Amino acid sequence: MCCLTESGNITTDVDSLRSEIRDKSVRVIDVRREDDYKKDHISTAVNLPLANLLSDDSPERVVKLVNSMGIDDETRVVVYDDTFGALASRVAWTLEYLGHSDVSLLETTYSNWKSLGLENS
Questions:
Q1: Which end of the chain is flanked by fewer CB atoms within 10 Å, N or C?
Q2: 11-115 adopts what CATH topology?
Q3: Residue 63: what pLDDT?
Q4: Rounded distance, CA 120 to CA 36, Å?
Q5: pLDDT band at 3; cut points 50, 70, 90
Q6: Are 52 and 30 in contact (CB under 8 A)?
Q7: Separation between Cα atoms, residue 100 and residue 113, nearest integer Å
Q8: Closest to 111 in 3D by CA, of 48, 36, 46
Q9: Which pLDDT score is estimated for 2?
Q10: d(CA 121, CA 90)
Q11: C-alpha of 81 from chain center
Q12: Where does the record place the Rhodanese domain (predicted)?
């Protein structure tokens, strides 16, 4: 089984993500529904609802979609949802399948992130 990141870590912990957000060295993807994202989300996160991805997950379309979000092959990506990774893992897998070598899952849910009082928009 191949790991999702160059470092071999499948998940990213809360403190690491907070640091990467401050350093602007990561692109965060929120895979929750658009309505939930619009209410609030992790600061700097972009929204890619899983349903949007699954409506046409051809490699060409997905590459174009993630490129439009400022993600290229060199971009570090952390994906999160509110289901302990059930939805986020599908997006992460898709990125890895397309050759992206630095993608991981946030180790917690958005609800937990928010309950900890961490940065959100």
A1: N
A2: Oxidized Rhodanese; domain 1 (3.40.250)
A3: 92
A4: 13
A5: very low
A6: no
A7: 26
A8: 36
A9: 45
A10: 24
A11: 8
A12: 22-121
Structure tokens at 30: 């929120």
Domain positions in the chain: 11-115
50-105, pLDDT tens digit by residue? Answer: 998 889 889 999 999 999 999 998 999 999 999 988 999 999 999 999 999 999 99
In the chain, the amino acid numbered 88 is A
Nearest to 76 by CA among 95, 57, 58, 90: 95
Structure-block tokens of residue 18 = 């907070």
Write out the two tokens for 49: 């609802």
Q: Where are the alpha helices (H) located in the chain, listed in sequence order? A: 14-23, 34-39, 50-55, 59-68, 88-97, 110-115
pLDDT tens-place string over residues 10-40: 999 999 999 999 989 899 999 999 999 999 9
Does the pLDDT value for residue 4 go beyond 70?
Answer: no
* Structure-block tokens of residue 78: 């952390």
| Spatial CA neighbour of 52 closest among 30, 71, 72, 73 | 30
Q: What pLDDT, on a 0 to 100 scale, did the predictor assign at position 84?
A: 85
